[in-house]
Amino acid sequence: MNRKINIGVIGLGIGLKHLSNLMKNVNVNQIFVFDKNKHKSYEEKKKFKNIKICKNENDLFKNNNINLICVCSYDNFHFSHVKKSILSKKDIFVEKPLCLKTRELKIIKTLVKKNNVNISSNFVLRQNSFFKNLRDKIKKGFFGKIYLIEANYNYGRLDKITKGWRGRIRNYSVTSGGGIHLVDLVKHLTEKKFHKVISEGNNISIKNKGLKFPDCVSSIIRFKDSSIMNLTSNFGSISPHHHCLNIFGTKGSGVYQLNKHFFISDKNKNKLLTFKNVQNNKKLILKNYIKKIISKKKSDKKKLMFDRQDLFETTNICLKIDSSLRKKNG
What we know:
Elements: E1 5-10, H1 15-22, E2 28-34, H2 38-47, E3 52-53, H3 58-62, E4 68-71, H4 78-87, E5 91-94, H5 102-115, E6 119-121, H6 129-139, E7 146-154, H7 159-162, H8 174-190, E8 194-202, E9 216-223, E10 228-234, E11 242-249, E12 252-256, E13 261-265, E14 268-274, H9 284-294, H10 298-328
Parallel strand pairs: 1-2, 1-4, 2-3, 4-5, 5-6, 7-10
Antiparallel strand pairs: 7-11, 8-9, 9-10, 11-12, 12-13, 13-14
Helix pairs in contact: 4-5, 6-8, 8-10
């Protein structure tokens, strides 16, 4: 018999996608939801009749029957909701970013260790079939020693900043709100350890909208093995929403762009090893996390610890980027 858990969802923006998937999950028993827009909550109740509506957010944290909280609120509320979840001894699945300040990250790390809860985030690029293949190739030595990684997060949806909640957050971070996906992906692919970073940015695309934070940030990240990652979070791009990742090693290269996905080997530099039918099953991130939580296998418990550490390290790199940017701007 499948073990079932009860889940709380806070925030019905991206939270709606999770809610839809959770309703079909055989390991989920009861779902409780809260959104500060109460009308929205009751509208969703018409579609998902079995969900329980909470009158305020604290109803989620005080409910001892809830095992896992999905934090899907606006970025500037994540720290508060994650902290309350930990203190309620509930496991957590948080939309990126985990938090917005180094001080907050330190508090979360301390509380997680003290309360022994699981925490993970929705890093969807890990389920991309090209990147899975890329990771296998890295492990098998296809690229040799990787010395340079180029990563671009081209958002292509500027109105979400100028007309949405992101623009109302003071010092909104395009790195923590977007580029973080590529930071996590590169760490997941290469297992490289961060050393230092230097960043530059501008707000040319949104300056005439009265917004002061940078909407385009480029960073040079140096890892402890001396390899370099060039990361750009470009929210003003006139393009479809997409990611670019180029890997360069001493024996081969990998290219993932808008409509090009291929590998190149030093055995034949002129032959492109094309990768077709790229798929990205985003639903598996939360589904697999729930499976690991309810599992009694030691291997799954170990994976949960790696998930937790990966999230902390990725968040720290993004916070270092933002800190570097602030120092540059005085």
